[in-house]
Amino acid sequence: KNEVEQSPQNLTAQEGEFITINCSYSVGISALHWLQQHPGGGIVSLFMLSSGKKKHGRLIATINIQEKHSSLHITASHPRDSAVYICAVGGGSQGNLIFGKGTKLSVKP
Amino acid sequence: GAGVSQSPSNKVTEKGKDVELRCDPISGHTALYWYRQSLGQGLEFLIYFQGNSAPDKSGLPSDRFSAERTGGSVSTLTIQRTQQEDSAVYLCASSLEGTANYEQYFGPGTRLTVT
Questions:
Q1: Which of A6, A18, A67, B60 has a beta carbon 3.0–4.6 Å from B65's, enabling a disulfide?
Q2: Distance CA A61, CA A71 (A)
Q3: Shortest CA distance to B93 belongs to which of B101, B81, B103?
């Protein structure tokens, strides 16, 4: 079993839909990261959180430490949101991250 | 300011040859990470440098892989006697400090193809 599990693996949505991507982890962590990877492009950090909820524009990330679960929500989705979204966790004094396999999101106009 | 840069962007090499991949982190970032993303696979950790401390090499897949970081800045990842299974995108990231509580900034990656 992977230490970081994401669901769904693939997601197709219509423009304007509310999207949720889930991440569960089995290790102790100090922080959880949500990353975005566009086709052929680099990786961009969206959020780093250790508790509660963060919001940036149409993106919202939440984490429940007790349940070892995080969600990434996209409101009013747009075709430019099409990308792979990756959940990653890190813990202790080390900074290296353990990654989920990613969720490939495609938003149709 | 400048982000993390990597070179080359693409590298094609013959099986058995050695390759060197370079990473220039963001100035002032004390932590530097190397990750690998194989086709259809998730990202995996390779090696991590934090300041002047000994690097964490726990993710290196074999002794053919090594890395160094000179002067706390530029890093080079070397793969000796390359194998076809080494084909992947190699990503470098840096962060202000070396714990998971700091945002990591990723470079564009080096796509390595071993023929």
A1: B60
A2: 6
A3: B103
Token code pair at residue B93: 């990231």
Q: What is the pLDDT of residues A38-90, one digit of tens each?
A: 887 789 999 999 999 999 999 999 999 999 999 999 999 999 999 999 999 99
Q: Is a pLDDT exceeding 70 seen at residue B1?
A: no
> Quick check: B104 and B94 in contact, CB under 8 A?
yes
Phi and psi, residue B80, nearest 5°:
-95, 150
Interface membership of B101 toward A (CB under 8 Å): yes
B91 interfaces chain A, CB cutoff of 8 Å: yes
Minimal C-alpha gap between B115 and chain A (Å): 21
| A42 CB within 8 Å of a chain B CB | yes
- Which residue in chain B has the smallest CA separation from A103? B42
CA distances, B107 to each of A5, A6, A17, A64, B89 (Å): 25, 24, 31, 30, 11
pLDDT band at residue A1 using 50, 70 and 90 as cut-offs: low
A33:B42 CB<8 A? no
Q: What is the pLDDT of residues B63-111, one digit of tens each?
A: 999 999 988 799 999 999 999 999 999 999 999 988 888 899 999 999 9
Is B97–A95 a contact, with Cβ atoms under 8 angstroms apart? Answer: yes
